[in-house]
Amino acid sequence: MRMRRILPILLALLVVSPAVGVPHAYLVKAAPARRAVLLRAPARVQLWFNERLEPQFSQVSVWDRDGKQVDLGDAQVGPDDPTRLSVGVPPLVPGTYTVKFRVLSVDGHVVEDQFPFSLRGSP
Q1: Does residue 71 carry a pLDDT above 90?
Q2: Which residues touch 18 (CB under 8 Å, ≥6 apart)?
Q3: What would the CATH number be for the domain defined by 22-119?
Q4: How many CB atoms neighbour CB 31 within 10 A?
């Protein structure tokens, strides 16, 4: 009898209580920033996350508007900052580029996303 009274209360609490989010890495800052318009090409694209990344399973790449990968292929998680992922880029011609990343944080969650930036100036 007592359980019949408690069960509806517990169910109501589950329905109205906020869901507890499962933590995972999310992008905190990027250089260049999302949709940035630059006058000069960066030497490296750098991404910072809210959690430490697993270096073996974290990737970042830069693509031109024709779908060609244009980065130097030297992506790395910062040895001094395990929340920073970066990749070098050669001198770029003016145009729109897409940064693509796929990271695995130490909590075991994979996050994948992309964003554009534009270069207006000379290489």
Answers
A1: yes
A2: none
A3: 2.60.40.1220
A4: 14
